[in-house]
Amino acid sequence: xxxxxxxxVLTVVLISFLLATFVLYTPAPQHSETGFxxxxxxxxxxxxxxxxxxxxxxxxxETVREYLIDQLEGFVGAANVTxxxxxxxxxxxxxxxxxxxxxxxxxxxxxxxxxxxxxYDSRGHIGRSGExxxxxxxxxxxxxxxxxxxxxxxxxxxxxxxxxxILVTDAEETGLYGAAMAAQEAxxxxxxxxxxxxxxxxxxxxxxxxTSGNNAAVIDxxxxxxxxxxxxxxxxxxxxxxxxxDFTEFVAVGKTGVNFAVLxxxxxxxxxxxxxxxxxxxxxxxxxxxxxxxVEEFVTDAAYAADGALDSxxxxxxxxxxxxWFVSYTETAGLVMTLICFALLFLFVFLLARKKELKPxxxxxxxxxxxxxxxxxxxxxxxxxxxxxxxxxxxxxxTYTRMEGTDLPTFVxxxxxxxxxxxxxxxxxxxxxxxxxxxxxxxxxxxLALATGFVLSGASFLFFIPAAVGIxxxxxxxxxxxxxxxxxxxxxxxxxxxxxxxxxxxxxYLALTVGGLPALLVILVIDASVWLPATRILITAD
Length: 542
Known about the structure:
The chain is α/β, with parallel strands linked by helices and about 550 residues long. It folds into two domains: about 1-25 and about 330-540, no CATH class; about 40-300 and about 310-320, 3-Layer(aba) Sandwich (Aminopeptidase), CATH 3.40.630.10. It is built from 18 helices and nine strands. It has helices at about 1-20, 40-50, 60-75, 90, 140-155, 170-175, 175-180, 215-220, 230-240, 245-250, 280-300, 330-355, 360-390, 405-430, 435-455, 460-480, 485-510, 515-540, and strands at about 80-85, 100-105, 110-120, 160-170, 190-195, 205-210, 255-265, 315-320, 325-330. The strands form two sheets. A seven-stranded mixed beta sheet has the order 1-2-4-3-5-7-6, sandwiched between helices. Strands 8-9 form a two-stranded antiparallel sheet. Strand 8 (about 315-320) and strand 9 (about 325-330) form a beta hairpin. Helix 14 (about 405-430) crosses helix 18 (about 515-540).
């Protein structure tokens, strides 16, 4: 029986892992006259990325600007395209070049509108370690510019309820100067929502990685996107990091909105490898699949022209759990659900203690064990991250250790961590203590869910979901007599955790690089503290 149960558990884990690899699905490229076309977008990128065109390469920079003017005028009419030029004195920066923005307007019945933003200067100077400069700007920000031109093509001659503002900014790479100047312009009074389009890699899913503050209404609006990919932990963490994009300038003047970027392919970012040959049509289509429905929703519903239509007084907690399945709830709802799970946990412990099947102190003991392993895993991750950086001859940083070929080592380390955790569980936790061990993991997750719910609510789902599915599976296992139902309950615990943690760890790896190994191992250990004991309960079940 134990052998058969082991095979069932292994099968559930493998199937769950396989399903989790589809969560970050990107749609097939389309070549459509009536819908967003990655093929048309790629044609624009081929022109934009012919050569590096930073603010320091004035001739190429001007060539790209003229191309964009020509395309925008063709789509929306010359009368609706404005060149907005600023001298260094007007910018108020120590620069020796003019900042030259472009604004295309597709007027609606109401001047209130949605603004879509991308920058047209490529990276021309060396920044952080590994950034070589002289980028061709195919992804950063050719992807964004191509999406803007596709929006101009699709909406240029349509009758709209609300206005579309298409803003092409300059000098983003050198100091966000174009966005800073645009944020002060009079037309901004009529901008009700901002979509900024960026790229930090060249392929993979296009993440909605940042929002304006108090984003509950914004996230409700984002639900109109097709194939949405976003995690509130990303927006929460990004809000306390020093990173900036053009979006930063618009949030600073009180605008609501969202920010998009692909993350995979960091090694191409801000280097000459960011060229047309390395673009990914599926990624470009994914931008369109998310952004076009948002634009369509906004410009066809006059209600969005009302002041404060997308304002809220709290943040949302959200995550992608399956392809095209996006879950969100308010931070208040998250706190309430966490407290309910606490009550269910205490009730479960009380019921088992009354039946003499559990000693409450055992739960605290195993919770302490989980925390000890969390600390150990952080230290191990820190050591391994430094070792990898040492052999790669790059500086180590917790958030940006830029090094090629770290995908496989990171995967091996995470898989090895899981294997080691399972061995520890098997060697040091007796069969009759598996439930206590799982309860300890649930307690740790609930405490973290509650703490982050107050101070960084976007991260709370990372701990709440494992705890919630874990406590439900334990109740079913303890009080339902049907063996198949009990096994299904424990199995779904594995499934939902895999669907959540696998794509999330991968996404965080893309965002943090191999330098984030300590954080990745900590998250993995905390999550596994719930579902690994569930596998042991399944394997040892009669």
